[in-house]
Automatic annotation (TrEMBL):
Biological processes per GO annotation: phosphorelay signal transduction system
Name assigned to this protein: Response regulator
InterPro entries, sorted: Bact_response_regulator, CheY-like_superfamily, HATPase_C_sf, Sig_transdc_resp-reg_receiver
Residues recorded with modification 4-aspartylphosphate: D56
Length: 297
């Protein structure tokens, strides 16, 4: 298995030492940078090297917000998760970081278990992303001629495989794959399996989310439920229509990045898919249908 590599950026040597000490509990390789310019130079020189950036906001020379903007503006680095860690905790400051694409916003001082929970969650997401991208590379030739098709899936593994396959025939395929996987996983876990927001928060904090999903997939109440995906390629756009068999949800709360959820371990996937992966994302009715649109021109 790929051993993750983290880049920790902070201009205070004591903070770097403490964070690196916390990270000894995670099986990972750690690299450090003492300011934004050094961090950006390392990221540019090896854009595929790092799996996660822990980034201080307030630094000399180049601050963390500029580094974050550079990362999210670079096609080779755009999908890299960034955890901002800072004493700047005002609502607008948090929202600024989330709007730029920060995976999580951690305010100082923080406890080690909070940092480790966030990093483990981010790395799990990152490993899933890398698996999707690898599948894309293996499957690209399969669907090049597809104009229209309907697919059904039930499990998280099927969701990620389908996301990889369909993204291969879309522009900006790696970014589309991440957003599409997010929508499909959401349709399974929240839609078909009925795992609510607060319940997922508890499961994530205790490390039981994946096990609970697998158990529900085999439960008689959920075993028969599927997610349907309709792919339609037109001359000027691609539409992906996703339908689950759940009761729907209050999707309006999740299409924008909300600073009140900035410190939760999840809940940003739909907003990030809308922001990064698709030109249009429209939920229908009670929320168990979503149409994602990609423009081709």
């Amino acid at each position: 298995m790929h051993r993750p590599i983290l880049l920790v950026v902070d201009d205070e040597p004591f903070n770097l030492e403490i964070i690196c000490e916390y990270l000894e509990e995670i099986d990972c390789e750690i690299d450090t940078a003492v300011d934004g310019e050094q961090a950006w130079a390392k990221l540019q020189s090896a854009p595929g090297r790092y799996d996660l950036v822990v980034l201080d906001r307030m630094m000399p020379r180049m601050d963390g917000m500029q580094v974050l903007a550079n990362i999210k503006g670079d096609p080779l680095l755009k999908a890299l998760p960034v955890i901002m860690q800072t004493a700047a905790a005002a609502k607008e400051q948090v929202l600024d970081g989330l709007r730029l694409g920060a995976y999580y916003y951690l305010t100082k001082p923080f406890e080690s278990d909070v940092l480790l929970t966030v990093i483990r969650t981010a790395l799990n997401d990152r490993m899933s992303q890398l698996a999707v991208i690898q599948q894309m590379e293996e499957q690209k030739a399969m669907l090049d001629l597809l104009c229209e098709g309907t697919f059904q899936l039930r499990t998280l593994a099927e969701a990620r495989r389908l996301a990889a396959s369909l993204a291969n025939i879309c522009p900006n395929s790696s970014i589309v794959a991440l957003g599409l996987a997010e929508l499909l996983v959401n349709a399974i876990e929240h839609g078909n399996l009925g795992i609510g927001y607060e319940e997922k928060s508890t499961l994530m904090s205790t490390g039981n989310w994946a096990r609970e999903v697998e158990q529900r997939l085999e439960h008689p109440d959920y075993h028969h439920k599927v997610v349907s995906v309709r792919f339609h390629r037109m001359p000027d756009q691609i539409q992906l229509h996703i339908t689950d068999q759940g009761e729907g949800f209050e999707w309006q709360r999740f299409t924008e990045l909300d600073p009140t959820r900035a410190f939760d371990s999840h809940g940003r996937g739909i907003a990030l898919a809308r922001q990064l992966s698709f030109q249009k994302l429209e939920y229908l009715g009670k929320g168990n249908e979503v149409v994602a649109t990609l423009l081709l021109s």
